[in-house]
Amino acid sequence: MGLFDSLKSLFAPQAAGDPNALWLYVKCKRCGAPLAVRVDLRNELSADYESGGYILTKEMMDSKCFTLMRAELRFDAQRKITEQKMDKGEFITREEYETMTNDE
Ligand SMILES: [Zn+2]
Predict the structure, then answer these.
(1) Which of 24, 25, 83, 104 has the most CB atoms within 10 Å of its CB?
(2) Tell me: the pLDDT tens digits for 33-92?
(3) Which residues have CB under 8 Å from 83's CB, separation 6+?
(4) CA 64 / ligand 1 centre spacing (Å)
């Protein structure tokens, strides 16, 4: 209940005005728990020499059933997402995430 609220207030100041932060909003496929994960575009991307862009693999665990999810994202040279895949979870929008966390 209160956990998401405290997380939100914890993360909110960082999210604002940080051009290197990318937020991923995901949902656990097993229990449906929503999750917000911060990615540092400066430090977490690996160069993909084949495409000239970047790759990111990110593992995350939800706090309800502790499923380990794995996201794989591809970026172009401008660090815009061109492809995204998710193992054991699915991507949701920020609006969906906020609706789901406000429910409680
Ligand atoms: Zn779960």
Answers:
(1) 24
(2) 999 999 999 999 999 999 999 999 999 999 999 999 999 999 999 999 999 999 999 999
(3) 73, 74
(4) 5
- How far away, in angstroms, is 72 Cα from ligand 1 center? 18
Rounded distance between C-alpha atoms, residue 60 and residue 24, angstroms: 10
Q: How far is the CA of 17 from the centre of ligand 1 (A)?
A: 30
Span from the CA of 11 to the centroid of ligand 1 (angstroms): 21
Give residue 66's region: left, alpha or beta (phi > 0; psi -120 to 50): left
- Is the sign of the CA dihedral 79, 20, 24, 102 positive or negative? negative
Can you give the pTM of this predicted structure?
0.77
Give the separation between CA 42 and CA 99, rounded to whole angstroms. 29
| Ligand 1 centroid to residue 31 C-alpha, Å | 4
Is 74 exposed, middle or buried (CB count within 10 Å of its CB: 0-12, 13-18, 19+)? middle
